[in-house]
Amino acid sequence: MSDMLKKASEILNTSQQAVLNATEATAHLNSVSGKIDDGQGTVGELINDKALYNNLEQTTSTLNDTVTHAEAGVTDSRKTWKP
């Protein structure tokens, strides 16, 4: 009976620690998501600042166009270049 109570106590202690760890993890996630919602940090700014998002989208589009034109120029120069 004593061994069984000891085992039950160990299981209870382990379970309590698991609940504590889960509670702490949840608090950290709440803190991070709250900061994102408030627009703090890079992720928060990207999510909450539409102008920043639009600027990044435009920059990416321009970069894609530049790469496309560069590839076309390389292809054209290979066609006209004779060793």
In summary, what is this structure?
The chain is an all-alpha fold and 83 residues long. 90% of the residues lie in helices and 0% in strands. The mean pLDDT is 90.
Number-wise, the strands total 0
- Strand percentage lies at under 5%
Distance between the termini: 93 Å
What's the overall average pLDDT, rounded? 90
Please, could you describe this protein's structure?
With 83 residues, the protein is an all-alpha fold. The chain is 90% helix and 0% strand. It has three helices and no strands. The longest helix is centred in the N-terminal third of the chain and has 36 residues, at 2-37. It is elongated. The model has no long low-confidence stretch (mean pLDDT 90).
